[in-house]
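Researcher: Next entry in the queue.
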Amino acid sequence: LQISGYLNLLANTIDNFTHGLAVAASFLVSRKVGFLTTMAILLHEIPHEVGDFAILLRAGFDRWSAAKMQLSTALGGVLGACFAICAQSPKGAGETVAWILPFTSGGFLYIALVNVVPDLLEEKNPWNSLQQILLMCTGITVMVLLSLT
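Model: Structure for this entry, 149 residues:
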């Protein structure tokens, strides 16, 4: 098995840990914020997990082993949620959320910008760049609209 498969599993576990942090901290704020965060992460995770599964297959895992390993990385999300709940201050959720949500949000923004912006800058076809920018703006608009409801 190639080392890239194991590195992908480690990265996926860390990613799921931060997702668990974000979901638990969001529910500590309110049910609405919790459900919005959960929905956003689910929409992100579905294609992400399919891609990770393909990476594991390419790295030499058989289908059953790749599925089991992907499922085991989901435990990172459970651990992240447990950590967020256990880190809750006796003074209330406000102090816990004060550091968890900015931490996870900053991480998500960093990863998105590090992965997306260089690809946009390398794109030779202006129409493809415009489409990608419009789709990003559409995603931001959908998030804003969902937060207003």
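Model: The chain has a mean pLDDT of 83.
Researcher: Noted, moving on.
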